[in-house]
Predict the 3D structure of the following.
Amino acid sequence: MSKVLVYDVKDDVRGKIRAIFDEFAPKLAARQVLVKPNLLAASPPESGVNTHPAVVEAIVLECLERGAEVLVGDNSGSIDRTPWYTAEVAGYIKACHGCFGGISSEVVQVLSGSRFVKSFWVSKAVLDADYVINVPKFKAHVVMTITGALKNTFGYVPGGCKNQLHFKTVGRRQFAELLVDVHLVRPPDLNIMEALTVMEGNGPDAGPLRDVGKVLASTDAVALDATAVRMTGQDPAKVPLITIAHDKGLGVWAEDRIAVLGDFAVIPDFKKVTNGYWASDEAVKTFAELGKIKPVVFLSKCSPCDLCGLRCPVGAIGIIGGLRVDEEKCISCFACVEFCPRGAFEVPSGRAQAIMSKVFSS
Ligand code: SF4
Ligand code: SF4
């Protein structure tokens, strides 16, 4: 039997997070903890696009109080921004009390059990952590029904590599299977879903918000997501991401195998997804375009230090004889954009934004 806690937060985010830790994670002393929120975009807290910083802050403080070493990081969807810029706008720099870090700079290639790819890149911080706390935001998602604990770990994958992976699959079921393959690289030890506000309709970044005022938690990501789907009045048996994760041994979704404790309530008249664009073949093509975006370098800004050459995980940057990027080798992780001290590397934002606006306006 899996356990899911659902708490009304009211004004006591910290108290409810403490209760969750008491239940699921009492011993963290001297352990290296990675807190993995959903930091989708450079959007302020009130936009409801990212995991709310109040919940991230309560988790950080709880980990520190229990003696853990804490790192907060995500591979944001904002590939044309540095993680620090995204984190600042999202309210994370203040909320993380010095524990925020860029996790895109060091990546490792992992062999996958996936039928779609032999291997893929993930942030090294994910594999280095003794304990991973996955902190998704409760949002509707136009392909996956909700973006919960199972979907949030797609952020283990850096930058444009996410899009390269996405276009290896066709349609909703295949993409769901790939998301489960990524989740399996490092199943989180604890999942805490922020539902202070919940995004309805055509999430994950364009739906209306509803004040719900809850947090949900479980060590079983499948049970947590299934419970969230039930809160929207939908059936988890019809959500491929959940049933595939169950079939691959990640947890349970059946109602009689989950003990839901606390303040569970169905959200009345939850607005369901109406936009099927993201599940369409057209969206698959668009993601393929996004995955082909490579960084551009402005040589006039470069004062050769070789930091980008050292940081590039695939040796795609040549310094000798003039700085250049080997686009065949480049995996679009954008570590070079993140680390150049002089801002000489940029994501060609005009092209990235054109593609993203095509997706979000569809
Ligand atoms: S050049 Fe290297 S560091 Fe820059 S995006 Fe490509 S793979 Fe990443
Ligand atoms: S990190 Fe920036 S300044 Fe240093 S060599 Fe690379 S492009 Fe030039």
